[in-house]
Amino acid sequence: MSHSRFHDLNLSNATLIFADILVLFSIFTFGLVGIDYFSTLSLPHYGDASFFIHLVLYTLPLQIALLAVGLYNEKLRESFNGIAIRLIVALFLAYILASGIYFILPLPSLPGFSRELIFFFTFIGLITSRFVAISTNYEKIGQVKVLVIGAGERASLIEKCMRRKSDRVHVDIYGYIQIDGDSDLHTPKGNKFELDCPLNEFVNKHKIEEIVIAADERRGNLPVDSLFNCKIEGVLITDIIDFIERETGQIAVTHIYPSWVIYNDKKPATFIAKALNWLFNSSVAVLILLFCWPFILLAIFFIKFEDGISSPILYSQQRIGLKGKPFNIYKFRSMSLDAEKNGAQWATKSDPRVTKVGYYLRKYRIDELPQLFNVFRGDMCFVGPRPERPQFSEQFEESIPYYNHRHNVKPGLTGWAQLKYPYGSGKEDAIEKLKFDLYYIKHRSFVLDLLILVRTSEIVLFGKGR
């Protein structure tokens, strides 16, 4: 029995993805049949090779676009109208992406307005399926009944890291078993039990599916024999650190042991792997330049228009990169010319130093576009921990455990922390972001990078993360 998941992929959104694929297949198939019946257009029929090619070029862009706008995030806090708007944006993106593929491939598109009609029916089908999903609380599919062994400081991590109701949609915390050695200073809210029978009997009686070990002092206090019996009977036994990591996509940095860092380091990348990684990042940078050059020109025009023709459009700032080596990062200037007359300062959410043009440059991440040069030069990747300024990095390395571990990978334009944690500044926010950075460093892979790149579209399109 296993409740592991691939990052944010779980039974609830896997069910939603499968339902969407079924809806898209049905709309495409019956849509072509209907259009063929009421028109004189020559359309591919089910069973033809061209039918399946067009089906893939219709379904795949739509799935990517739905992921990009956040519609596979069951923790999305959005009204039904908001979901409809996101769906319209997804359909528009998918239509543009599919049109680009048809343009590149030597393959004729569907004739007439058949594609446009199918996309119209797609909106009706997907908005209906989303309404049904929300009405039936789809996010609770596969919810697991969890018992926590321990009711002290380590157990309270669940409350600290999973505060919102949406953070617990996959688990039902049945309660906490109090044991010797638990801290009295930090105790979680919820049902607390003192065992009056063997643990495995309690687990069977209350139909517990997973046990989380969160004892503050394990030695001599855990019911090892009963835990072994529970495991034999198919109950999943999970450490609190692994539980938090699985459910929230972060590492509880203040509670991990030094051995975690030692055992979770990946092998150094080979020369070929580094070359392929640079080639991938540079190729993505070229694609972004091809699509975003109008925004670059507009940014230059409006910066000059607001601050004068002689005002600088770029600024460079020293940041800490791979292995702690400093490098210069480049951005479009979004703050006033005297922004740091009093020395290095944290950028805050409503920073008065930000110009009117800079507000929009920062909101939609346009100010980050000059960092494509850093990607070409090899200072940065697209995905990785955001690079910090040397002044702040030195402070954090002294006061935050394992902070320098984030320097084991190249910094990035976007990252797991930017997806999972809202904009913030200061030491407390640095600690929270480090939890997600450590998760990324542990699990980094080409597939995870692609997932983060696609989901970053939501931040850009809807002005989040600033």
UniProtKB/TrEMBL annotation:
Pfam families: Bac_transf, CoA_binding_3. Keywords: Membrane, Transferase, Transmembrane, Transmembrane helix. Coiled coil: none annotated. The keyword Membrane applies. The chain crosses the membrane at residues 21-39, 51-72, 84-105, 117-135, 276-303. It is a multi-pass membrane protein. GO terms for molecular function: undecaprenyl-phosphate glucose phosphotransferase activity. InterPro entries: Bact_transf, EPS_sugar_tfrase, Sugar_tfrase_EpsB_2. It is found in: Membrane. The keyword Lipid metabolism does not apply. Residues 279-461 form the Bacterial sugar transferase domain. One of its GO terms (cellular component) is membrane. GO terms for biological process: colanic acid biosynthetic process. Belongs to the bacterial sugar transferase family. This is Sugar transferase. It comes from Photobacterium swingsii.
